[in-house]
Amino acid sequence: MTKKKIIVGATGASGLPLLVECLKMIRASDEFSAILLMTRGAELTLRHELNMEAEEIRLLADENFSIDDIGAGPASGSYPTAGMLIVPCSMKTLAGIHSGYADNLLLRSADVMLKEKRPLILAVRESPLSPIHLRNMQELATLPNVHIVPPMLVFYNKPQTIEAMVQQIAARLLMPFGLQAKEFCSWQGMTRNI
């Protein structure tokens, strides 16, 4: 069985533990594979937040492309994918997607998702949000294939560790692709106990 490809982009915003968890969940799936695109900012943030090098994270993906390889498969609409997740998504990347400024492979891949109407999930990370950030998110959210999913903590599942919180958010980010991670705790499941 051929696995469906999810392009996973990572930028320099805070939140690289979410990237790692998403890649692990995709790897554990029988249906999906991960194609990883990392900006230089993501590589720097990875060192700061997790004391890890990009090479270690690349091992969690099925395929990797250089951010500068603008002619790679993900830059074309003829490259078959189930869609794209950008986790974390910086405000710079959000602005580039919003304006169609596709000057690297990650932005070009997101542009392809827009033109091909494939799912594009943006785990936007910033606080507080400026009016420009909100405008960019609002305008992209009007497109039916774009999901703006800020990595918000939830507490209804009574998480006991930071890892449990990260897993819940990562699983939520993958839901638009139809990937049901075993770590996800739905509100419906919790309400039975209330």
UniProtKB/TrEMBL annotation:
Signal peptide per UniProt: none
Keyword Flavoprotein among record annotations: yes
Keywords carried by this UniProt record: Flavoprotein, FMN, Prenyltransferase, Transferase
Enzyme Commission number(s) of this protein: 2.5.1.129
Domain of life: Bacteria
Pfam families on file: Flavoprotein
Source organism: Selenomonas sputigena
Enzyme class (EC, first level): transferase
Record bears the keyword Flavoprotein: yes
UniProt-recorded name of the protein: UbiX family flavin prenyltransferase
Record-annotated Flavoprotein domain positions: 4-171
GO terms, molecular function: flavin prenyltransferase activity
